Automatic annotation (TrEMBL):
UniProt superkingdom: Bacteria
Gene Ontology molecular function, alphabetical: metal ion binding
UniProt GO cellular component terms: cell envelope
Subcellular location: Cell envelope
Keywords for the protein's UniProt record, in alphabetical order: Metal-binding, Signal, Transport
GO BP: cell adhesion; metal ion transport
Main location: other
Signal peptide: 1-26
Official protein name in the record: Zinc/manganese transport system substrate-binding protein
One Pfam family in the UniProt entry: ZnuA
Length: 294
């Protein structure tokens, strides 16, 4: 059983508590008279909260670092929250299907991050690692909230602008790495940090069959695993980019191989680490990648 699956089973009781919390928070939000925002994960929720400031209330359906947005199934309470919110912010692209299904056909405002991406030619769904898409989402959130609460529109716009300044710093870190160490080869256990690697000019040599199998929680073919291991043992790459939220025996073995080969392991995740906001999290990711490849 994969680590992510086991943790979801262990966390069932916590989900009940979270659902009750959503009810209480929702009642408070309605009483405040402020626009209500519900995000599929705390990644988009943190971005929305940064832009909302004191002028709107924001809730996230998934905030548990061990949860898997790909396979989350909403409770009745969560579905109601997504349906009734003034604004829903979600990833899209098949990443958080529970949110897409909940808002299908609704006549209220939504922000679909995947749909907002500037580069429509790239179909990787992990767009929260793409600072261009995140900037576009920030603008859409500010615009939607400004329509919902016109008196606070200037505040939403100003906070979005300040947030995008922080994004520019992350982009600069990745761009510097691309200039200093172009086409540095790495392996990923899953194509999670795809956009960060692209911005950093990094060459991802992971066999596609391997990444696809891990992402779909199936076992890669033995030949594919062997080819991936050989990239590490033969030091044909400079680092292993490791998704800590989708682990199994195969990925843990790759991590051990990388470490025994003296290769750095860059840990990445799909939800915010405890105590970090979006800018801190992605700044840390870009800096960790830079440190590993230098």
């Amino acid at each position: 059983m994969k680590t992510s699956t086991a943790k979801r089973l262990v966390g069932a009781a916590a989900g009940v508590v979270a659902a009750l919390s959503l009810v209480a928070c929702g009642d408070d939000a309605k009483a405040s008279g402020k626009p209500t925002v519900v995000a599929s994960t705390n990644v988009w929720g943190d971005i929305a909260a940064t832009i909302a400031g004191p002028d709107a209330t924001v809730e996230s359906i998934i905030s548990d670092p061990s949860a898997d947005p790909h396979s989350h199934e909403t409770s009745a309470v969560e579905s109601a929250k997504l349906r009734d919110a003034d604004l829903v912010v979600y990833n899209g692209g098949g990443y958080d299907e529970f949110a897409e299904k909940a808002v299908a056909g609704r006549d209220k405002r939504t922000v679909d991050a995947f749909e907002a991406r500037p580069d429509k030619s790239d179909s990787n769904e992990h767009v929260f690692y793409d600072m261009g898409t995140v900037a576009a989402v920030a603008d859409r959130i500010a615009g939607s909230l400004g329509e919902l609460a016109p008196a606070a529109a200037s505040g939403f716009t100003e906070r979005a602008a300040a947030f995008k300044t922080g994004l520019a710093g992350i982009t600069a870190t990745a761009g510097k790495l691309a200039a200093e160490h172009p086409k540095t080869p790495v392996v990923q256990t899953e194509p999670l940090a795809h956009y960060l690697l692209r911005a950093a000019g990094v060459e991802d040599r992971t066999p596609h069959e391997f990444q696809e199998a891990i992402e779909q929680e199936t076992d890669p073919a033995p030949a594919t695993v062997a080819a991936t291991r050989e990239l590490l043992t033969g030091k044909q790459v400079r680092a292993l980019v490791y998704n800590v939220q989708t682990q199994d025996k195969i990925t843990k073995d790759l991590r051990a191989v990388a470490q025994s080969s003296g290769l750095p392991v860059v840990e990445v995740s799909e939800t915010l680490p405890a105590g970090a906001d979006f800018l801190q999290w992605q700044t840390s990711n870009a800096e960790a990648l830079s440190a590993a490849l230098r």
